[in-house]
Amino acid sequence: MRNKISISPGSVISNQELCEKFRCGPQGGMRRSNKTNSLVLITDLEGSNYKDEWQDDILLYTGMGQLGDQELNKYQNKTLNNSPYNNITIYYFEKHEPNHYCYVGIMKKVKPAYFSIQSDKNGSLRKVWIFPLKLLSKTIPPSVAEKTALYEIKKEYNLYKKSKIDLYKKASKINQRSYRRHITNQYIRSPEISALIKKEADGRCDLCNNEAPFLDIEGLPFLECHHIEWLSNGGSDCLDNTVALCPNCHRKMHVINNKDDINNLKQIAIQRIKEMEENYRSDNS
Ligand SMILES: [Zn+2]
Ligand SMILES: [Zn+2]
Q1: Ligand nearest, relative to CA of residue 227
Q2: How is residue 281 annotated by DSSP?
């Protein structure tokens, strides 16, 4: 008999609670439990190295094995690969911060696993297995989307405390186009880029040059991160496509998107990158 586990999407539990509920081990991103006939999958959003990626409503989940080539017919990779024929239930979690496991929902494998090349912990290239999975609920439940949004805001606040140089080192390497599916498609916006651009703007809107209209609850000037070429039009989340705008100008760009304004913002973004390269690259050892 399948042991039905009761947990609702959006619930955040500790590692200990997770182990007790699923009766699985405390370690790893793929945890098999024979006692509850379950396989728990975890995407660690906390570490910057996670490779799991959403494409539309399919999660491309990277298999198990931190070093060297991953093997398809061993351990949990085998279990996941043999689903649904082994009658196991796959429970999917996102780990947002230390000891915060947010339950997303039950997954099923929708296409055969395929292999891909990724670098391992030590930076050596190796073979990994990718499992295309879909949520039974089809889309990420709103309760999970809320938690993720909160986590991203929190992460940005934390990053805001870092120096501009540290942020630059991370943000200048980011150029991402992936997005995840919530209720609608939601593009991934890097908090590193957003925090750095706002710091560089120094409390002033990049379009009207006025001071931010108010301070937010953290006491920071309220500006919004805007992608000059919209993500929804194929723009990238990278430094040369990003500016900080006051809410008025931000609305203006989304309502009017005037050509002169676009060109001005592009100039500002490019000029800013030059300055950052001069200011921070010398320390980029
Ligand atoms: Zn403005
Ligand atoms: Zn915008």
Answers
A1: 2
A2: G
CA of 186 to the centre of ligand 2 (A): 13
64-80 core/surface letters (b: 16 or more CB in 10 A; e: else): bbeeeebebeeebbbbb
Sign of CA dihedral 257, 242, 223, 281: negative
Is a pLDDT exceeding 50 seen at residue 182? Answer: no
Asked whether the predicted pLDDT for residue 163 surpasses 60, the reply is yes
- Domains of the chain by residue range: 12-138, 159-283
- pLDDT above 50: residue 183: no
Give, as residue ranges, everything with CB less than 5 Å from ion ligand 2. Answer: 226
pLDDT in tens, 94-119: 998 889 999 999 999 999 999 998 87
Q: Which CATH superfamily is domain 12-138 in?
A: SRA-YDG (2.30.280.10)
Task: Report d(CA 11, CA 100) in Å as an integer.
Answer: 10
CA–centroid distance, residue 19 to ligand 1 (Å): 50
**What sections of the chain are H helices per DSSP?**
15-22, 75-82, 142-160, 164-171, 191-201, 247-255, 259-280
The C-alpha R_g of the chain, in whole angstroms, comes to 21
Intra-chain end-to-end CA distance of the chain, in Å: 58
Ligand 2: distance of its center to the CA of 176 in Å?
A: 16
